[in-house]
Amino acid sequence: MPLLNKEDIAARIARNELVLKPAKDETGAVRVEPASYDLRAGAVLWKEDSTGEIKQKVFDEVNPAQDSLVTLKPGQMVFVLTHEDLKLPVDVAGTVYSRNKLQKKNILALNAGHIDPGYQGPVIIRLINLGANPWSISLGEAVFTVTFHTVMPSKNAKGHAARSRDEMLEVARNAAENAFSNPFHDLYKTQIDEQLGRYYSQVEDRLRKSFSDEFFRKNQVSQFGFAFLIAILTIMLLVTKLPWKEVWDYLKENRLNVVLIIVVFGVLVGLIIPWAIRVWRALKERRRKKDVNENSSGAINTD
């Protein structure tokens, strides 16, 4: 079926069809394009990213310049309600597009698309700022285009029940409440929070293990100190019980054996102490490498 041209659109608007509350030029004539009509932004709703509160601004045709700008941050999404109501007869369907100027500013419009014959009410379209810079929309500004084409009406075709502006505002408000204020930022933030949660969990586990190891080391030191004290007390007890006169006589009689025992003991001590130091250093280096590997595996994955 053919598209309606400028004359057809203007004639039907004059009969109170297609577009209600149309924009007019200085002469009072309806602003119609060669084969379309440009719809204006009548209300803008959005969710505040910091508070989650739903905000809205409504176009005031009496005072159009009063607080009429809404600025979208990069990635932010808003819901736009057209200022005009569509009023389609049963033999006309419509298609709503975003104007070309939006794509030049990196603004993505999730188009309303097809409008059924017989529909009456405003149209809701979402806008997302895909650019790196903030972008402002002015209430009352023409941002969408609607084309009309005739259709062969079905038998006993009836129009849809009219959708009031308040009803459509409530629909937009409910949609905004259940949507991200900034889809790309909020989704990425969710991933960051999840990765941070895993990272904090790993850090907590390592800290628990470190504190546990430290506790056991301190406990081992305490046990060693206690054992050393018992050994000293035992030696002191033995010393007081030894028959020192007989021991001294034995040492004088077996000087060579005593010297050999002292030499052998000194050699053993000289061998054991360096070996123990090497073992201690090796264990310390192994633990250091293990801690480095755990810290590396616990780093946040930003891929």
Q: CATH class of the largest domain, please?
A: Mainly Beta
Number of helices: 6
The CATH architecture of the largest domain can be named as Distorted Sandwich
Parts with pLDDT < 50 across at least 5 consecutive residues: 299-303
Give the overall shape. rod-shaped
Number of strands: 13
**Elements, N to C (H/E):** HEEEEEEEHEEEEEEHHHH
**How many structural domains does the protein architecture include?**
2
Task: Work out the radius of gyration.
Answer: 43 Å
Q: What share of residues is helical?
A: 40-55%
What is the third-level CATH name, the topology of the largest domain? Answer: Deoxyuridine 5'-Triphosphate Nucleotidohydrolase, Chain A
Beta-strand percentage range: 15-25%
Main sheet characteristics: 8 strands, antiparallel
Mean pLDDT: 80
Could you give me the name of the CATH homologous superfamily of the largest domain? Deoxyuridine triphosphatase (dUTPase)
Separation of termini? 51 Å
User: Helix/strand-derived class?
Assistant: alpha+beta
Structure write-up:
It is a single chain. This protein is α+β, with helices and mostly antiparallel strands and 303 residues long. It folds into two domains: 6-181, Deoxyuridine triphosphatase (dUTPase) (Deoxyuridine 5'-Triphosphate Nucleotidohydrolase, Chain A, Distorted Sandwich); 243-303. The chain is 46% helix and 22% strand. The chain has six helices and 13 strands. It has helices at 6-14, 100-104, 165-177, 183-241, 244-253, 255-297, and strands spanning 18-20, 37-47, 54-58, 69-72, 77-82, 85-87, 92-98, 107-110, 113-115, 120-121, 124-129, 135-138, 142-150. Strands 2, 3, 5, 7, 8, 9, 11 and 13 form an eight-stranded antiparallel sheet that branches. It has a three-stranded antiparallel sheet with strand order 1-6-10. It has a two-stranded antiparallel ribbon with strand order 4-12. Strand 2 and strand 3 (54-58) form a beta hairpin. Mean pLDDT is 80; it is low at 299-303.
